[in-house]
Amino acid sequence: MKIHVICKKLLLIVSVLYFCSCVSYYDLTPEDRESIRQISRRLAGQIKTEQAFEHELISDGIQELLSYVVTAGPDSCLSELETVRTIAELKDYMLHKLRKTPMEMGLDAFLYWDETRPYDYELHKADVLEYESEHYVYRVFKNTQAQKDMEKIMYLCEKYISDLTGFINPDGTVLKRFENNFSYLNNNKITLTLPPNSKYWKGFNKTASMNFGYSFDDRGLKIEIGIALPYYNSLSTAVLTHEITHMVDLLFKIDLGRTESFSYLQGDEQKKRFREWWTTILRDIFPHDTPLGEGFAEYTSFKFSIFYRDLVLKPEERLHATGQSRKIRTRILKRPAAAWNRKIRLLQYTELQSLVTFIIEKYGKDKFIDFYFNPPLSEERFIAFYNKSYSAIEREWRMYYGF
To answer: Is 228 exposed, middle or buried (0-12, 13-18, 19+ CB in 10 A)?
Structure first.
């Protein structure tokens, strides 16, 4: 028997315009490509990074995105972009000239790419390569961009885990539980799959996904945990922070050491008892598609991703920019961000990111971490921590930002 919990994730890449023309990306002239390359290098050079190669990743990603802007946008796009000198000017250009936030444009860019970059997985099924780092097994296809960027991806993924555990800063008991949990996973690692487009998953339409489940075989219980994320250019690594946050906070909350008690049971009784325990994990601990879980994952993406923090607007700025066309929901802490329409879900994630940011900045990180990493995340526990209800905290947030 095998149970998988698969949560669809919006791939929030970064910055670009929805297409307004039918010009092909491949119709760009060599001169246009060189101009775009120079603009991208100039903008990437303004972003502070810890490693030199991060500038290369950012430059490559901006180049891909600006190529899409020029391909899909009005004829004046390239000449106007040549006058853009700073990242701030680029964001302002997209917001006021092209009428979309960088996050909205990034979604359009990904959808366009995914529809126009087919990949024959059946033909290349023998071309899957595996790499390993301390916490991950990486699966990529030979001769794809993910393979070319593999060393950089490995560095960034390990860095995200380090950043997140440092930010969470748990006590020694919780940190040891997090480290011990890896010994119960397949290969003692998280599996990260980076296919060159979303068609890798039948039934998953243009999404990233997280897989957390279990199975029983002749050797007993197997815990499976993994991320699958289309990798079309370097900016795809930005969304990894969001997905890795879900993985990390799950491995802090759950105690897989408890699964050893089920090894003394046999057959159907073992499976029945384990399923009962597993159900409580999904209800009380699993972070996906819970409002605070999505808000915290977006918060850490903005805080730690080298792409998000410099290339997108702050959440309250995004909400004000889109506020005229779509109102913010009510009771957002009681309603999951689960809209099928990706543009609506993008706005819902932004709402939750803004609210979590407000709670952390006003009431302190330590209090939020203490609440968030000791499930269940019920309103009763929230009231005990903050002396106010979900509705009250939402009213404070709306008043503070003028929503």
So the answer is: buried
